[in-house]
Design brief:
It contains three helices and six strands; from the N terminus they run H-H-E-E-H-E-E-E-E. It is an alpha+beta fold.
Length: about 150
């Protein structure tokens, strides 16, 4: 199976069990080797006392994009560390898109950068994550399940 098909198959296997992303209304827009793009509409239930999107919701979207990107090589990977910088508020009705890009991968470690933007292209947050691989794969190279 080629790398792009393998990345897609791994993301489909992840999505099947990703209850948190589904609960928050996230959508997997694109996954390719080392990259992922997810979106989420901000709902009223995601607002904080300032009537802006709670930072934890934005973090969850960025973290999910990071997760799909670092697992796109079909090697199970988990977060080892991550940080986020909030740059502008998101409001009810905004559609946020998180785009994760692999910066480096060596041995069991990977480093990823995620940019979260609203529907107008304004940067809401930037996120940086470091992943580590663990034993296992999402699918076997021939395309069967885990």
């Amino acid at each position: 199976m080629d790398r792009h098909k393998l990345a897609q198959a791994a993301s489909e296997a992840m999505w099947a069990g990703d209850r948190a992303a589904k609960l928050l209304g996230m959508k997997v827009e694109e996954v390719r080797p080392g990259c992922a793009r997810l979106s989420m509409r901000v709902t009223r239930d995601m607002l904080n006392a300032y009537q802006t999107c709670h930072g934890g919701m934005i973090f969850a979207l960025a973290d999910a994009a990071f997760g799909y990107a670092c697992n796109s090589h079909n090697q199970l990977a988990v977060a080892a560390s991550c940080s986020i910088d909030f740059l502008s508020p998101a409001r009810s009705g905004d559609v946020l898109t998180a785009t994760a890009v692999e910066l480096a991968r060596a041995g069991r470690a990977g480093v990823y950068e995620v940019r979260v933007e609203n529907q107008g292209g304004a940067v809401v947050a930037t996120f940086r994550g470091r992943s580590t691989t663990i034993r296992g794969h999402w699918v076997n190279p021939q395309g069967a399940g885990p």
